[in-house]
Amino acid sequence: MIKKVALWAPYRGNIGTIKAVLNYANILTQIGYVVVFIELCDEWSSIPNVSEKYAVVSLTSYRIFNKIGKKNTFARRDFFAYQFFKVFRLRRTLAALEPTLLISFLGIVPALIAASPIDLPHWGSVQGFPRFLNSNAQRNFYFKIEDKLREILWRALYSRLNKILCMTPRTTTQLSNLLKRDVVFLPNPLFAPDDDGEINFDMNLPLDFVFIGRNSFQKRIDMVLQTFQVARERFPNSRLHFFGDIDRYIFLKDYSPYEILLERCFFHGFRNDLWSFIRCNLNPVHLVGSQWEDPGHAILEGINYLVPTLLVNVEGDYLSFYMAAGMRVFDCNSFQSDNFSEAIYSVSQLSYRTMLKDRLVPQFSVTYTESRLKELLDV
User: Fold this and answer.
1) Residue ranges per domain, the chain?
2) HSE on the CB side for 84, CA within 13 Å?
3) Least crowded by CB within 10 Å, which of 89, 209, 237, 341?
């Protein structure tokens, strides 16, 4: 009998889950499964080589609908709603494919509804800390309603999953308490054996501070800019590089109090060759001001490449994960010229950077995920 796994992870934007799902697909292929991607629109078939390596089945027949969610006009809630619109199409697709296992990474609730009448083992990999459990998330009237609805759906439907996978111990514990059932700690496979190598750093050269991510409250760009403002006093030739959806226009609109810094800011957009570009062009220090992460793919990627990383938000709800590995955390509100220089020196020591890599990266490796998957699949 052919062992077939269907992967369901509808997404929009540049997110760390993409790399993780592709690594999952490669691992499952290596251990003898046939992998089929079920895409909502064109999210997976538009990635180079995916259609050549794996079967891809789209739930969208007309190209015009592939545009849904590609602009952030509705905060991509149109894309979220479209998943529910396609529930019955997803159900028919699963019935026709007859996979031996369905793994959902995103859009888990619509997948649960679609698979409910089908005798099909279903795993859900939770990609991030659920917003309704997040005390640091913004809470206006709309978000309160949305969060309550999500919590009701999770409580009602997630019990149907055969396995629930989470990326950090904290999420594993809190979801287990919420759902009153066992939850498996299984980090995303981010790093292949050959995904290695140091990005050089020299404190005697001008510093290139790096921000990676979306323009959102979660990422606390205001703290990043506050930190860079102090950095410019101590290191006047330093620069700040934005990799994400923030550009000059958004900077002036959302962060006008920091306009004086604009001449030393550079906007690169999202780059598929992010770390290669940084390696070849920058003397990087990764600035992280996030209010929450679970656990933060860009943080881990920087640590993997031995990039000095400065965590500057002491209120971040993910810090215990990194502090347990010995990572230092700084308060951007306490920075002055002298102690900022000391902070840069402390996080740039090669022994410190190597220690963090040795303690954090292995659990997010392809090798570790493969061994755990084999245990869970009993192969």
Assistant:
1) 4-193+365-377, 208-362
2) 6
3) 237
Rounded to two decimals, the pTM is: 0.91
Helical (H) or strand (E) element with 303: helix 297-304
Confidence of residue 72 (pLDDT cuts 50, 70, 90): low
Listed as own residue / partner, the contacts of 234-239 with beta carbons closer than 8 Å and 24 or more positions apart are 234/337, 234/338, 234/340, 234/341, 235/206, 235/207, 235/341, 235/344, 237/206, 237/207, 238/206, 238/207, 238/208, 238/209, 238/264, 239/206, 239/207, 239/208, 239/209, 239/264, 239/265, 239/266
How many Å apart are CA 40 and CA 79, to the nearest integer? 9
Chain centroid offset of residue 152 CA? 24
What lies within 8 Å, CB to CB, of 288 at 6+ separation is 224, 296, 298, 299, 309, 310, 311, 312, 313
**Does domain 4-193+365-377 sit in CATH 3.40.50.2000?**
yes
Report the 10 Å Cβ neighbour count for 348.
Answer: 19
**Tokens coding 312:** 């500057």
Q: For 177-221, what is each residue's pLDDT tens digit? A: 999 999 999 999 999 888 878 899 999 999 999 999 999 999 999
Both tokens of residue 368?
């570790």
What does CATH list as the number for 208-362?
3.40.50.2000
Distance between CA atoms of residues 368 and 222, nearest Å:
36
